[in-house]
Amino acid sequence: MNEKPIKAKARASSTGRVTLDDIARRVGVSSITVSRAFRRPDKVADEVRERIQRVADEMGYVSNRAASSLASARSMNIVVLVPSLRNMVFVETLDGVEKVLRPKGYQMLLGVTNYSPEEEEALVRAYLAFDPDGILLTGMNYRESTRRLIEQVRVPVVHMMELSDREGVYSVGFSQEAAAEAMTEHLLAQGRRRIAFIGSQLDSRTLARNRGYRDTLMRAGLYEPRRELMVPDSSSVALGGILLERLLQQAPDTDAIFFCNDDLAQGGLFECLRKGISVPGQLAIGGFNDLPSSACTVPALTSVATPRFDIGMRSADMLLSLIDGRPVARQHIDLGVALKPRQST
Amino acid sequence: MNEKPIKAKARASSTGRVTLDDIARRVGVSSITVSRAFRRPDKVADEVRERIQRVADEMGYVSNRAASSLASARSMNIVVLVPSLRNMVFVETLDGVEKVLRPKGYQMLLGVTNYSPEEEEALVRAYLAFDPDGILLTGMNYRESTRRLIEQVRVPVVHMMELSDREGVYSVGFSQEAAAEAMTEHLLAQGRRRIAFIGSQLDSRTLARNRGYRDTLMRAGLYEPRRELMVPDSSSVALGGILLERLLQQAPDTDAIFFCNDDLAQGGLFECLRKGISVPGQLAIGGFNDLPSSACTVPALTSVATPRFDIGMRSADMLLSLIDGRPVARQHIDLGVALKPRQST
DNA sequence: ACCATCAATGACAGCGCTAACACCAAAACC
DNA sequence: GGTTTTGGTGTTAGCGCTGTCATTGATGGT
Prior knowledge:
Two copies of one chain form a homodimer.
Chain A: H1 4-11, H2 20-27, H3 31-39, H4 46-59, H5 65-71, E1 77-82, H6 88-101, E2 107-112, H7 117-128, E3 134-138, H8 144-153, E4 157-161, E5 171-173, H9 176-189, E6 195-200, H10 204-219, E7 228-231, H11 237-250, E8 256-259, H12 262-275, E9 284-286, E10 303-305, H13 308-324, E11 332-334, E12 338-340
Parallel strand pairs in A: 1-2, 1-3, 3-4, 4-5, 5-11, 6-7, 6-8, 8-9
Antiparallel strand pairs in A: 10-12
The structure holds a DNA duplex.
């Protein structure tokens, strides 16, 4: 009865999976040496390391992260929360994030908030249980209780897409207002004077773009509230068509529409085709984000190219710096945008 | 020196995070009772449970999954691998998966394989370290070594999207061949006789659709190799336009094109508009998957609606059954497809 | 009044791994 | 020739939690 646990161990650990100990026993070293062979190869004699590697492969060893993060302070997990995967913008942001994280051995834990601060908090709570080394959030529109939750566990956070000016907050993105201004100015420069704004989702970025639009038109003395159409529904191509129709009912003399994103704008474009409204003849149409497909529509859609891939990369870079305690040159990185004038305006 | 560890524990655990022990001490119970208060509330007296709950909230307790999965056999992690997030089809599949997994307390670990069996294997290896209770894979086109890897750790697997007929394999999807047949038959029924196929990505699903197309045309005695255009590039709207042009060069008399997915088809449609080719007058265009935006194009795109949301849900359901050792009625669930005839054909 | 049952809680061990230190022999130094 | 350094390895303890008993006191049936 006394040696039973030892015997059991001599075969395979109780759970059936191959453990460091199993390898250690087969190779004839201690388990810590096996651990080192994987994590600090330079600390183990070449000959021993190779034998360990061979045996591990033979036995199909897979390290156990739960045990590893429990024993060491670091989990090598990074939580990344985005509002939606139906919007390619965030998918491309994630690509950038992954590009930086993967080579460093970090595991990305992805969560989708559906644009809801409540869901965001629930996800943060759920993912904190994974003891993440860092967190990437989309936008700055999180709940106060979420902030406290994160503060309590002292995990570094970087905000993507929107910029902040607060001390102790880190963000990588661009000025949504300035980007919207650029589009509005462009429409003005094209001679448009009755410029509408159509927005949906009404997240903080949409609202910021609306402010940029409104401020620009006010400065030009051309702002008219009836040309603003904002609905809380989630964006889609189909919705773009519906909203265009609705807007033209409430303001038929509109000569340009700035859609808050390309999905809506494409839907608007299609609806014009269907209705026989000439674009840009009768109506100029501008979008936002410059989705890959926006250059392909007929007419090609004018849009504002946003650097989401770079935002993903730079955010991840910054987060890793914070995690490693390296100094961060700037707390807020503005990556700017680029207007893409095309046939639709 | 002897009581130091006890003192240290009396304040907060060494890592600074709040642990079950911290709560237990504050409430005056043992840590196992606190554990039970969360995991089996019925096993703890109401009054005690409420006190525990209150203290936990006050202290900002977040359970540690690493410790939990180490101690219990179950990690409550489910690995889900999809080829891409740029294709809405998989995003909607994930929605279905999440809808089932989340309420049961499972955490989804998402990986993107970029259509590469090698990357898939690397992801499986990385995620096995999370000791998952189950795995959802997209398609059946995995490497033999990946299969062995999974078999070794005895984790149940369900394959999404494609169907298998093998024993001991579980799958939820639809027959890609039959779906492609349906579209091809539809084009034939519309009187088309010179039907082309355009495919990209060349993953196993695209190839299966191509087989369905080819078989149908062969049966009708109308198959012509020069009307097939298959390229390995990844699908996009832009590529659809390029491939349409290329196809019309090599087979100008084509009177219908079956695109292997809606992204390509939309690009093809736009290219026709640009070139002044009338659709469906000169050329009928059919897509695959029925993306939400496909009903909005001008003309609206004929497509094959695939039940990816349901596939996600049913796959997750089946996986949970396997995990819990519940009997599974059928190892392979065919959810079928629905042809959506619209103006483009 | 007796034993069986049950609800509520606790003691203990251990999941698989790694940090911190200890150890030893060989190499390098003065 | 003795001391220090170095490279390679092992010992020990513990990360935070939960499975498996054991324990206690109350309840119920006869």
